[in-house]
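Worked Example 4.2. Consider the chain below.
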Amino acid sequence: MSNIENFSTHEPLTIQKNEEIQKTALQAALIDSKKSALQKYQDFAVGSSKLSALLKYEILTGIFGPIPGALGLVLRKRFYKSLFGSIGRGVVFGKSITIRHPHKIHIGENVIIDDYAVLDAKGTDNQGITIGNNVMIGRNSVISCKNGDITIGDNTNIAMNCFIQSAKTVHIGANVLIAPYCYVIGGGDHETVRTDIPIIAQGQIVKGIIIEDNCWLGADVKVLDGIKIERDSIIGTGAVVTKSLPEFNVAVGIPAKVIKIRKNG
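Applying the procedure from the previous section yields the following structure tokens:
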């Protein structure tokens, strides 16, 4: 018998009537059978039940979002301002950016959001996303709230294809360099104690992440929930950070281990 045939011999676990998959308020709203598909879309994308908010969101993102080149940049700079909670001067929006719950997104001055990036502030009672001045968010990078909050300090550069998610709080300080393909996951760990019900029904553990000022994360670094990386740290390419790290450290490997303290030369 092949390994593939052996793989499916166990009976699947089922959720009993007295068990319930733990859901966020937003998840509950999205599966509410009493709501129409349009209402669910508003909950998910717009974050408002007002028809005026939906129309503004659809018109601005639908018409101006996909326009390439200089014309698109000029039009988005002119018209996107009214979508956001607050926005500074000199902000540049690339084409085909995904924006969710824009009224909970606050952007400083001289920020660049590259093509196909995602700014997702969705949640029912969170503060959303706050981006400081002179920040760069690279192409295809995702900044995503799962009812959590994300703050990004001044002069921070997040390169292409990064994924930053918060189910509680993720704070990235000022002057931080985050190279391509990095993952910063604030939340998403699951309870696994019980074996009689699926993991999805056991709830999540959320702690949050802090990356202090002046840090540098090399390409393909993963930072797990509950981690604090103190100021002026360097994390080597491909490292997986599973424990908090002290200031001025250089850490590499899986799991990341400190190999040098920069103050010591």
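The radius of gyration is 21 Å. DSSP finds five helices and 25 strands in the chain. Compare this with Example 4.1 before moving on.
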